[in-house]
Fold:
Amino acid sequence: MSSAAREILGLGLCILGWVGVILACALPMWQVSAFTDGHIVVAQNFWEGLWMNCVVQSTGQMQCKLYDSILALDPHMQAGRALTVLVALLGLVALMVTVVGAQCTTCVRAGKAKSWIVMAGGVLYILCGVLVLIPVCWFANIIISGFYDPKVPNSMKREMGAALYIGWAATALLLLGGSLICCSCSCSGDGENAFPVKYSASTRRPTSNGEYDKKNYV
Structure:
């Protein structure tokens, strides 16, 4: 695989991971009700996210409510909000930086500066993957600890929601895509152009008197 193709593939994976982070941030399913009593049908199902909590009735109706106070939230909830929003903004900056330094664009002349710019974009995407991993693992640790804590009543036990799995998938895409972008930069850092340019030599034919035409030397 050429460095340009590796770069495009890495950028595509990073964009998918960035969209996944935004989706995980918005979904209210970071932790959901745990069914530990063995009941087949339950009256209510609770969803809790970074911005709101929802109650899903057995009839299919759902009611959601935004959190009243930011300062009243738990530390892991506040950190999750801050980090996911930061990753969403940082991913946008990384996208612009990577596009500017990409080999398929002409925003910057080919050279070491262009390679450093695209490498900076790849590093930013790797940083995004590490940052989004922190709140996802933090939430998972709290949920698992509370689930196996005998002091917590069954009605208050929670399980990991779909947003956590989306966050893990987004982390993997960001790390893999950022690594591919950095690898493509290191492979093309020797000054070679990933998109080959064909040169054609002019054909010089002698004239009738045996001399070459002077216009070939202009």
